[in-house]
Amino acid sequence: MTEIVYGRGIVKSYGKTQALRGVTIGVAEGEIIAVTGPSGCGKSTLMLCLAGILRPDAGEVGYRDQRIDGWSEAARTRLRRGDFGVLFQFGQLVAEMPAAENIALPLLLKGVRRREARTAAMSWLERLGIAHLADVRPGEMSGGEQQRAALARALVTEPRVLFADEPTGALDTLAGEQVLGHLVRVAREQRTTVVLITHDARVAGYADREVVLRDGMLDPSGLGLAGAGVAG
């Protein structure tokens, strides 16, 4: 297995609470991996460490053949603007911007010309079936539409790795399945690696592989949501 993202012995605490207790994980290039477990088990913290948003207290985080946990905040930010994409549960779209501007924003931050960024944004709106929302602000969209726009924003830079933290957690079943369908389709088409954080068995079922966190550690039993058929 050629690992594109890895963590080795990751430890992370918030005050006296230890969220991660020596987690080691590797993700293959092009793989969709689901990280599951009950609320508070550390799965979102693990994603934030792997994505370079949080620095672990101990252990290593790497991307391809580079260790990134020691990089400066500026260097890790550049990585997230280029090779990494991040999708959160509530989308975190800019309320004052219509969809096309929200999606173009990561490209503008990279220095792409406004016209080119707008063209790319429109292309992604079309691919995800929401081109009619180009000039609509988030507050005027449904939850599913907002999350598809957020997915487009996460993918517009064509990242090698997409980190998705409970991407359907705020959606009803139908809207969630639509978002996941688009996410998986694009990942397969572009061979994008996906790290999918979820406590939902249906979501975990879209992944190639599932790993389970319990109390900040990987569960060696490997019995996860998709295998058990139980949503937590």
From TrEMBL:
<dbReference type="InterPro" id="IPR027417">
    <property type="entry name" value="P-loop_NTPase"/>
</dbReference>
<dbReference type="GO" id="GO:0005524">
    <property type="term" value="F:ATP binding"/>
</dbReference>
<dbReference type="Pfam" id="PF00005">
    <property type="entry name" value="ABC_tran"/>
</dbReference>
<dbReference type="InterPro" id="IPR003593">
    <property type="entry name" value="AAA+_ATPase"/>
</dbReference>
<keyword id="KW-0547">Nucleotide-binding</keyword>
<feature type="domain" description="ABC transporter">
    <location>
        <begin position="5"/>
        <end position="231"/>
    </location>
</feature>
<dbReference type="InterPro" id="IPR017911">
    <property type="entry name" value="MacB-like_ATP-bd"/>
</dbReference>
<dbReference type="GO" id="GO:0005886">
    <property type="term" value="C:plasma membrane"/>
</dbReference>
<dbReference type="InterPro" id="IPR015854">
    <property type="entry name" value="ABC_transpr_LolD-like"/>
</dbReference>
<dbReference type="InterPro" id="IPR017871">
    <property type="entry name" value="ABC_transporter-like_CS"/>
</dbReference>
<keyword id="KW-0813">Transport</keyword>
<dbReference type="GO" id="GO:0016887">
    <property type="term" value="F:ATP hydrolysis activity"/>
</dbReference>
<dbReference type="InterPro" id="IPR003439">
    <property type="entry name" value="ABC_transporter-like_ATP-bd"/>
</dbReference>
<protein>
    <submittedName>
        <fullName>Macrolide ABC transporter ATP-binding protein</fullName>
    </submittedName>
</protein>
<dbReference type="GO" id="GO:0022857">
    <property type="term" value="F:transmembrane transporter activity"/>
</dbReference>
<keyword id="KW-0067">ATP-binding</keyword>
